[in-house]
Structure formats: structure tokens, C-alpha cells
Amino acid sequence: DGGITQSPKYLFRKEGQNVTLSCEQNLNHDAMYWYRQDPGQGLRLIYYSQIVNDFQKGDIAEGYSVSREKKESFPLTVTSAQKNPTAFYLCASSGRAGNTDTQYFGPGTRLTVL
Amino acid sequence: GENVEQHPSTLSVQEGDSAVIKCTYSDSASNYFPWYKQELGKRPQLIIDIRSNVGEKKDQRIAVTLNKTAKHFSLHITETQPEDSAVYFCAATRGYSTLTFGKGTMLLVSP
């Protein structure tokens, strides 16, 4: 999991602003994922991508957008349409698209809306 | 879709005791069951996993058991130590699908 980086570590946003969270991996993994973590809620899937230039909505995609232009990168944009964006955001990757490979997590970004 | 229930939500034990965390899943086609440990403010880290063709797997003080008939799997930690204190998450998935996580168990090990 040391090959997955997220930036920034902490992010503060004013209401009405869009912000983009970065996720990069050098593990040559095909699949990448974004999760949101709230206290007592576990990890909830926002978006995932199993191959470059393709991605699918997870359970809580509303108010978020993603792109997958490169295999190494899977940025997440939190838009102003997301009603309660304050949370801990985790990016993960796994080796082979469409297989039950282990997911490895990045260190996370803590987003706070002021 | 898959639904994973995890119990208990909190678990307090004395150092040296054993701890058991249980999860149930709904999709009988699920075939991969990882367990993650997350320390406060850190990323989840895989500690052990099991596939549906195996009933039990052990790694030092940690073991996982799987009962496919009952659709439940459990994490067993023996000889607990204070550094085992963390939140533990179970998850389940089947091929070509995404992981579904339980809501987590906060384990507190008192010296």
C-alpha cells in the first residue's frame, strides 16, 4: 500500500466551492476506487474504475465526479452539489480489473467544509 | 446487492484475552472475505483474508473462519496486546464485483 499516495492530507473548503482530491498509484494496478468514511458508517463506495477511460458509480456517487485519463491517477472532485462533504476520503487500488484482488488503501484526505 | 453486517460495534478485552468479531453476508455468490485494521487517523491495512474454497486461515495470533452454509465469517485474535487496539472492518465480494464493508468494530485492549 505504500505505492498509493493521496494529496492533500487535510483540505478545507468553503460552501459552494468544488475541490479535487488527488490519488496516484505506482503499483501498475488496473482498478482504482474512492471511498468515503464517516464515524460509525464504515467505508462507502463513491466511484470505481476498472480500466483507463472507464468508471462506474458506487453507492453514494451523487455530488461527486471522477476521471481516469491515466492508469496511475484517479482524481475525485467534490462538487457544491454534495450536501454534506465533510468526511475522510480514501482511495484504493487493486491489481486486476474484474478480479477479487486485494485492495490497498492510500493514506486518506480529510475534507472539512467551513 | 451484497449486505454485510458486523458485530459487535465495540469490544473491550483485557490484555492476553481473545477477541472475536463476527460478520454475516447476504450474497451466497461472494467468494472473497478480507479483514482490515485501521488505527486512528490512518489508512485501513489488510491483516488477513480468506477465499470461499477454504474454511479457516491462520497467521500467527490472527485467524479467520468461514461458514459458507450459514454465510458468516469471523476474525479471531488470540493473546491480545494493547497495539491490537484499532477499528477492524470485514468485507465481502464475488468475482467481477466491488467490496462491501461492514460498519466496523472498535477493539480496545486494556493493559
Notes on the protein architecture:
The complex is a heterodimer of chains A (114) and B (111). Helices cover 0% and strands 51% of the residues of chain A. Chain A has strands at residues 4-7, 10-13, 19-25, 31-38, 42-51, 54-57, 64-66, 76-78, 87-94, 104-105, 109-113. In chain A, a hairpin with a 3-residue loop joins strand 4 (31-38) and strand 5 (42-51). The mean pLDDT of chain A is 91. In chain B, strand 6 (56-59) and strand 7 form a beta hairpin. Chain A binds chain B through residues 1, 33, 40-45, 48, 58, 90, 98-100, 102-108, and chain B through 6, 9, 31-32, 34, 36, 42-46, 49, 51, 89, 93-99, 101-104.
Radius of gyration of chain B: 13 Å
N-end to C-end Cα span of chain A: 31 Å
Structural class of chain B: mainly beta
Task: Tell me the number of helical segments of chain A per DSSP (H or I, 4 or more residues long).
Answer: 0
Number of strands of chain B: 11
Give keywords.
heterodimer; A: 114 residues; mainly beta; 7-stranded mixed β-sheet; 4-stranded antiparallel β-sheet; 0% helix; globular; B: 111 residues; 6-stranded mixed β-sheet; 5-stranded antiparallel β-sheet; 55% strand
What's the structural blueprint in terms of helices and strands?
The complex is a heterodimer of chains A (114) and B (111).
Chain A: E1 4-7, E2 10-13, E3 19-25, E4 31-38, E5 42-51, E6 54-57, E7 64-66, E8 76-78, E9 87-94, E10 104-105, E11 109-113
Chain B: E1 4-7, E2 10-14, E3 19-25, E4 32-38, E5 45-51, E6 56-59, E7 62-67, E8 72-77, E9 86-92, E10 100-101, E11 105-110
Parallel strand pairs in B: 2-11
Antiparallel strand pairs in B: 1-3, 3-8, 4-5, 4-9, 6-7, 7-8, 9-10, 9-11
Quick description:
The complex is a heterodimer of chains A (114) and B (111). Chain A is mostly beta strands.
